[in-house]
Design a protein that fits this description.
By secondary structure, the protein is of the alpha/beta class. It has 15 helices and 21 strands. Bound molecules: NADP nicotinamide-adenine-dinucleotide phosphate.
């Protein structure tokens, strides 16, 4: 069992290189969803004045920051990576206590944050443009990149290290200054990332951090005219508001939102592999990944075999406090999240799906102190049901039977989302059809739907994204503008 330190520190805002108290005395407590008696820390309930101060500091710092060479900016990110690496165990533990994912997952995510910082540190030395032949033989024409200016970063609670880092690292590498508004439910973890950036010695004002509610601080970022770009990850409901607000005043925006991700299991699939990947993709992190498998579409020839194996393994899953060794699945991240999941389970039953595993809140052996829901499987799900259409963001799998792979692909596409999808098959034509026809930004063959590599572009189609991409080389498209240069001697 990991050792938990009782930590009730109040984390301040980080503005212009200093940790300062918000202008209001109000703070909010970050509660451990595995044990509501454990307060992980407190954060400021900041006001618009606090935010405006942070934006002003970022604005002031941006010019000098963008005038540094890419290599100089990259060096700060290398130092931040070292600072984060030295705190993997501690920050991993904070993450587990704050939003519930298991400690190995939390440490793995923090290590990924380190790798992302190093990747974008290297971006400072990579090419930023192309030479394009001019029709004028005496001229040189080329493209270069210019940063947006001040970037507002709004992040969700489910990847409290990786997402802030995969947004802030490229923003900084390409010469922008940043104001981060983290999810309230994971703001203590986010404060610790900012501490690592501070330790790297970034010039004051280049990174700023303001906690507070989405409706005050998030909305303030959308409206502040000194912010040139807003990068948002979260639900599609809020994302739509962010996009509309940014568009209304001509700011650049990027929205990365939810998913309703399918796995298709063909009759020629390796069934054991597909079962394991469905469980891992659907239920790890308590199903609270945007790329989590939610719909499981299986060929009728192998349906019963697949279902039997799946349910047997789901019933073996050990649920509990993610700090304890041997625990495979932690709690929902908050009471609200748990209530949402339970209401979707009720809806599934009401609409005629058959509950074949789980379905309840867990309240025995100390689990009543937290927000635990059993890993849940529904059978006989049809595409018109709510649980087949809406993002649940919890440990719930919906099994759907199809007669052939073509019907499976049509069903997989029959949702408004298009983030990630997988297929399990040994047939190359099935693979090729899936890669070609699946409406999702991330398509994976014989691998779980929830797998993202930091060096590859990531983003969705349809309602899952503003059709932008983040991570890898794609990040430069959002965090810079192309400038076409024509020079004549
Ligand atoms: P959320 O409720 O939309 O919140 C996301 C962020 O927006 C939080 O920082 C939140 O602040 C802030 N916010 C809330 N109201 C706002 C407003 N009116 N204006 C501006 N900002 C506002 O989402 P979540 O529950 O944190 O995260 C889960 C969702 O994120 C799921 O839908 C999941 O699929 C999606 N997600 C997508 C990806 C991807 O890359 N596509 C990755 C991870 C998660 P508060 O916390 O203070 O409310």
């Amino acid at each position: 069992m990991a050792v938990t330190t009782t930590e009730t520190k109040t984390h301040l805002n980080f503005i212009n290189g200093e940790w300062i108290k918000g202008s209001s005395d109000d703070t909010s407590a970050s509660i451990n969803p595995a044990d509501t008696g454990d307060i992980v820390g407190r954060v400021q309930k900041s006001t618009r004045d606090d935010l405006d101060q942070a934006v002003a500091a970022a604005n002031e710092a941006q010019t000098a920051w963008r005038k540094l060479t890419g290599a100089e900016r990259g060096n700060y990110l290398f130092k931040a990576a070292d600072a984060l690496e030295a705190r993997i165990d501690e920050i991993g533990e904070t993450m587990t206590r704050e939003m519930g994912k298991t400690l190995p997952e939390a440490k793995g995510e923090t290590a990924r944050g380190v790798a992302i910082l190093r990747y974008y540190a290297g971006e400072g030395m990579r090419k930023v443009g192309d030479v394009i032949p001019s029709t004028d033989k005496d001229a040189l024409m080329f493209t270069t990149r210019t940063p947006l200016g001040v970037v507002g970063v709004i992040t969700p609670w489910n990847f409290p290290v990786a997402i802030p880092v995969w947004k802030m690292a490229p923003a900084l590498a390409y010469g922008n200054s940043v104001v981060l508004k983290p999810a309230s439910e994971a703001a203590v973890t986010a404060a610790k990332i900012v501490e690592c950036l501070e330790e790297a010695g970034l010039p004051k004002g280049v990174v700023n951090f303001v906690t507070g509610s989405g409706s005050v601080i998030g909305q303030g970022l959308i409206e502040n005219t000194d912010i040139s770009g807003i990068t948002f990850t979260g639900s599609d409901t809020i994302g739509k508001q962010v996009g509309q607000g940014a568009l209304a005043r001509g700011a650049k925006y990027q929205l990365e939102m939810g998913g309703k991700n399918p796995v298709i299991v063909a009759k020629d699939a390796d069934i054991d592999l597909a079962v394991d990947a469905t469980i891992s993709g659907g239920l790890r992190s308590t199903g609270q990944k945007c790329t989590a498998t939610s719909r499981v579409i299986v060929d009728s020839d192998v349906y019963d075999d697949f279902k039997e194996k799946l349910v047997a393994k789901v019933k073996e899953i050990k649920v509990g406090d993610g700090l304890e060794s041997g625990i495979w699945m932690g709690p929902c991240s908050s009471e609200g999240q748990m209530e949402t999941v339970l209401s979707y389970i009720e809806k599934g039953k009401e609409e005629g799906a058959s509950l074949i595993a789980g379905g309840n809140r867990l309240k025995d052996n100390g689990l009543e102190k937290g927000f635990f829901v059993e890993p849940t499987v529904f059978d006989n799900v049809t595409t018109d049901m709510t649980i087949a259409q809406e993002e649940i963001f919890g440990p719930v799998l919906a099994l759907m039977k199809v007669d052939n792979i073509e019907d499976g692909l049509a069903l997989a596409n029959d949702v408004e989302y298009g983030l990630s999808a997988s297929i399990f098959t040994t047939n190359i034509q099935n693979m090729l059809n899936f890669i070609d026809d699946m409406e999702a930004g991330l398509v994976r063959v014989n691998a779980e739907s929830a797998g993202v590599e930091l060096q590859a572009p990531f983003g969705g189609m349809k309602k899952s994204s503003s059709h932008s991409r983040e991570q890898g080389e794609a990040a430069i498209e959002f965090f810079t503008s192309i400038k076409t240069v024509f020079v004549k001697g």
